[in-house]
Amino acid sequence: MHTLHQAVTQCRTLVVDGPEGIGRSRLLTELARHGFLIRHAGVQPHQVDPCRPYRELLAAPGLLAVDGSIIHELVYGPLRRGHSRVTWIQALDFAEAIAERDGALVHLTAAQKQTAPQNQQDTEGAQAVSAYERAFRTLAQHVAVVTVDVGGLGPPIRAPDSSPFQLGRCAGKLTVS
């Protein structure tokens, strides 16, 4: 699988994740138009079993797109609390559950100018981007990962094979890690 279009046509499950503040609504709208049931994962993991809500979501039949995942906790837990409530073993189990459901992770990125951080929020944002890259690189050993630069998405265009799914023009990258 090399592109988002291939993931959409070949996968029953897509889990969309990336740093806070990155635009996901356009991609999720297009996935819904393509027949995916959209579910939003809560930011707070279950206290006893952080993967439980995701296992319940993944049990749904049909095409499923999940907005957010436990990767958020892997990234922001250490940045904000000094530790994650999710272990790497749980994250790898989550990745394998996605793969077993014929799925892929969709890593959203946004090309930005590289400038020196101006404040605490900028510093956290830069650290989160790096942490997401590391997390997706690790999880890619267990499940397909499609990286989509939402910063480069332009107006919708028809996919080359005339499928009804509309992909955006992408000035940045659209690759599989």
Explain what you see:
The protein is globular, with a radius of gyration of 16 Å. It has one domain (4-176): Rossmann fold (3-Layer(aba) Sandwich). The longest helix is centred in the last third of the chain and has 20 residues, at 120-139. It is of the alpha/beta class and 177 residues long. Helix 4 (71-81) runs antiparallel to helix 6 (120-139). The protein is built from six helices and eight strands; from the N terminus they run αβαβαβααβαββββ. The strands form two sheets. It has a six-stranded mixed β-sheet, with helices on both faces. A two-stranded antiparallel ribbon has the order 6-7. Strand 6 and strand 7 form a beta hairpin. It has helices spanning 4-10, 25-33, 52-58, 71-81, 88-100, 120-139, and strands at 13-17, 37-40, 64-67, 103-109, 144-149, 153-158, 166-170, 174-176. Mean pLDDT is 80; it is low at 155-177.
The CATH superfamily name is: P-loop containing nucleotide triphosphate hydrolases
* Structural class by secondary-structure content: alpha/beta
Average pLDDT, to the nearest integer? 80
Radius of gyration, CA atoms, in whole angstroms: 16 Å
Tell how many strands the DSSP assignment holds.
Answer: 8
Strand content is: 15-25%
Helical fraction equals: 25-40%
Note poorly predicted spans.
155-177
Gap between N and C termini:
10 Å
CATH topology: Rossmann fold
CA-based shape: globular
CATH architecture: 3-Layer(aba) Sandwich
Could you spell the SSE succession in H and E letters?
A: HEHEHEHHEHEEEE
**Number of helix segments?**
6
Give the C-level CATH assignment.
Alpha Beta
Strand order of the main beta sheet, please?
2-3-1-4-5-8
Main sheet makeup: 6 strands, mixed
- Count up the domains: 1
Organism: Streptomyces ureilyticus
Protein name: Orc1-like AAA ATPase domain-containing protein
